[in-house]
Write a structure and sequence with these properties.
305 residues; alpha/beta; eight-stranded mixed β-sheet; 8 strands
Length: 305
């Protein structure tokens, strides 16, 4: 019997597309053996491994983005080129002052949001053991001390997800044992190899990394930080995705990582991409294991050329 694994990449709000892909897999009764995720991929993958179905994950996310604790963060302030024509002058002015004040404050700390605020947000994540989940799961984080990627396959689901999605500079690093951890996408954008380690013999990767087309002149330090992260993630993803047996790329690459107000639209993009690739997904699931292993071996040999 085939063991399908999902590698769910990071991308902030773009990662909500993972839910759409999972919904289609559920509707088609395609069973999942293992999930490995980075950043938002770890959040969605971990929730799916906990609930066991995509509809509950979708409901959880809908409730989470509407939760007062999350809305208080004001994530729309991070959306590039966000229009504010609906705001009057004083709203814009005080918004400008507040954002600059928070940015200056962040220069004296490890992150834009402090530990207390962040901990309150992550209380929404179920506090269970990874070993007790319904599906094999791993979350990838990056250790700032050693520069190594850390693969969480046991322990607290909440802690692992928080570490894997600790966007550098936005959320504070997470201390677990001797590690100082940040977003897994810093070292492993789409964890194809890691999902094989959890038992999968074939891997479907969902890529939501942003496009890096030529952009106009950068305006400020945030533009430079965004652009640098996009370039790094993009090139790292190209390397990782070569290891997958099938890659799905929902049409979300033009969206910002902070477009949390577009959750329903992004999920629909994921559904659409999965349906467009459904024949390929079924073919992968039903592929003869030995033939697939030969194809994977040949692919590795070509990778060494």
């Amino acid at each position: 019997m085939s063991k399908l694994g999902l590698a769910l990449g990071g991308g902030g709000a773009r990662g909500f597309a993972h839910i759409g892909v999972l919904k289609v897999l559920d509707e088609e009764n395609i069973s999942i053996n293992s999930i490995a995720g980075c950043s938002m991929g770890a959040i969605i993958g971990g929730l799916y491994a906990y609930f066991g179905n995509a509809l509950q994950v979708e409901e959880f996310i809908f409730n989470a983005v509407k939760d007062p604790r999350f809305e208080k963060l004001g994530m729309d302030a991070f959306v590039e080129n966000k229009k504010s024509l609906d705001k009057n002058y004083f709203d814009q002015f005080f918004g400008y002052i507040e954002n600059r004040f928070n940015a200056i404050k962040a220069l004296r700390s490890l992150s834009y949001f402090d530990e207390e605020v962040t901990a309150e947000i992550y209380k929404m994540i179920p506090d269970v053991r990874i070993e007790d989940l319904k599906i094999n799961f791993s979350a990838i984080a990056t250790d700032l001390k050693s520069g190594e990627e850390i693969n969480f396959t046991k322990g607290s689901l909440r802690d692992a997800i928080r570490a894997s999605s600790a966007v550098p500079g936005i959320y504070p690093p997470v201390r677990i044992d001797d590690y100082l951890l940040v977003d897994g996408s810093a070292s492993e954008s789409v964890p194809v190899g890691k999902v094989r380690e959890t038992g999968a013999d074939r891997v479907l990767a969902v890529d939501v990394i942003k496009n890096i087309k030529v952009v106009k002149k950068t305006k400020n330090i945030l533009d430079i930080l965004y652009r640098t992260e996009d370039i790094t993630s993009y090139h790292l993803s190209l390397i990782r995705l070569k290891e997958a047996d099938l890659v799905i790329s929902p049409h979300v690459k033009k969206l910002s990582w902070a477009d949390f107000d577009k959750v329903e639209e992004i999920i629909q993009y994921g559904e659409k991409a999965a349906r467009e690739n459904l024949d390929k997904i079924k073919k992968l699931v039903n592929r003869n294991t030995y033939l697939l292993e030969i194809e994977q071996y040949i692919k590795k040999l070509k990778g060494f050329d």
